[in-house]
Design brief:
Blueprint: E1 2-6, H1 20-28, E2 31-34, H2 41-50, E3 54-56, H3 64-67, E4 73-78, E5 81-86, H4 95-102, E6 108-110, E7 118-121, E8 127-130, E9 144-151, E10 154-162
Parallel strand pairs: 1-2, 2-3, 5-6, 6-8
Antiparallel strand pairs: 1-9, 4-5, 7-8, 9-10
């Protein structure tokens, strides 16, 4: 099962559309995960039409229209892997321990908010991934997104892609 992880797209504020390379990754993915800050509902509509499967949550910059259609925390089981998607996880310091307490039983936590790519493993073994932003690099050298593969209930082949 191929995953595409994106967050903090901020459309159409930071960009008018997703980069072509991200749309190509949408077409290749079995599941697209978006960790919030869509900003406008049009991207949600586009991804719902184009993605084979979409899992997403709302972020702090998302209004009532997006909050009405998306949960604050999305939870899904993908090929035996328990996945949660949330926009904010707080400060980097102590993140893994804090998320272990907040998301027991989760194997993979996808989050956003900072626009800073992140890949770590908590003391309890939960993988934490932040794909950064494909449209707003802020203080990062590149705009980014992540891909991964799930097989037999295990996460593998996690890759960060610079745009």
């Amino acid at each position: 099962m191929r995953l595409l992880l994106i967050s903090d797209t901020h459309l159409p504020v930071r960009a008018k559309r997703l980069p072509d390379v991200v749309w190509a990754a949408v077409d290749e993915a079995d599941v697209v995960i978006h960790a919030g800050d869509w900003v406008h509902v049009a991207l949600l509509d586009e991804l719902e039409e184009r993605a084979k499967r979409l899992v997403g949550c709302w972020g702090n910059n998302d209004g009532d229209d997006l909050r009405a259609r998306l949960p604050e925390v999305a939870r899904v089981s993908l090929d035996g892997l328990e996945v949660a998607v949330v926009h904010e996880t707080g400060a980097a310091k102590g993140r893994e321990e804090r998320c272990d307490r907040a998301y027991p039983g989760v194997d993979l936590l996808v989050f956003g908010h900072s626009h800073i790519p992140w890949d770590s493993t908590s003391p309890a073994g939960m993988r934490l991934l932040n794909p950064g932003s494909p449209t707003d690099r802020r203080r990062q050298p590149y705009c980014t997104f992540q891909t991964a593969v799930i097989g037999a209930g295990r996460l593998k082949e996690v890759a960060l892609h610079n745009i």
